[in-house]
Amino acid sequence: MRIGNGGQLAKALGLPVVYDFRAADVAAGGQGAPLVPVYHRALARLADCAMPACIVNIGGVANISYIDDDALIACDTGPGNALLDDYLLRHTGEAMDRDGQVAAPGVPDSDWIAQALEHPFFDRPAPKSLDRNDFASFTVEGMTLEDGAATLTAFTAASIAGIVDRLPNQPASWIVVGGGANNPTLMRMLAERLAPIPVITGHDLGWQGDAIEAQAFAYLAVRSLNGLPLTYPGTTGVSAPLTGGLLVRP
C-alpha cells in the first residue's frame, strides 16, 4: 500500500515531486517491490565491497539485494523483526528486543526452527515478497520468554542464511542494514550461520543504516527523472528493466 499525495506535497513544498514508483512495474507484470536494490547496488559500488556482495535489510521482513557486476537479484527471505517485536510487545509491553538483551541468554529451539523452515515460501525462487504478517501464526508460546525470543531471532538468521543456496554464487561480503543491524544477538547468530564470510553492518561502512530507504527514494526519483530503470527481472519479476514514478510540479 502507498500513502501520501504527490500533488499536495509538491504544492506544499514548492518543489517538483516524484511519487507512485510501483505502479508501472505492477502494470508490466512485476510485484512492485522491492525498489531499494538499485540503490543498494550504488552503495556497494561506492564502498568498493568485495563482489558478489549481499546487502541484507532487516526490517519487519528481511530481504536481500545480491549484487555482482550487472547482476542484480532481490527477494524477501522471511521474517525480519516482526515476529520478535510482536512477541516482546505481547509479553513485556516493549516494542522490540533492545540490543538483543532478552534473546541473548535464551536457547533457540532447533526443532521448532527446522519445522518453521518447511514453510512453502522458503522453496520458492526469487524474486518473491512477503507481508510482515505472513508468519504471524508461528508461535513460541509455552517457551520461557528468553528461549522464545532466542528462537524467533535464530529463525530470522536461519531464513536469511537459507537464501545462499539459491544465489548464483557465494557472496564474498554481507552487509546488514535496517533495524536488525542494531541487534547484537541477531548479528551474532547471522555471523555464525554465514561463516566464514564476514558479516558487517552498513554503519561499519559509514552508511546511515537507518536512513537508507529514505535516501533510496530520493535516488529513485533522480533515476525516474532521467528515464533510468528502477526495477529489473531479478528484483520484481518484471519482464525487462523498467523505469517508473510520476512527476508532479507545484
Automatic annotation (TrEMBL):
Keyword Flavoprotein assigned: no
Molecular functions per Gene Ontology: ATP binding; kinase activity; phosphotransferase activity, alcohol group as acceptor
Record's protein name: Anhydro-N-acetylmuramic acid kinase
Any one biological process term the GO annotation gives: amino sugar metabolic process
Keywords associated with the record: Carbohydrate metabolism, Kinase, Transferase
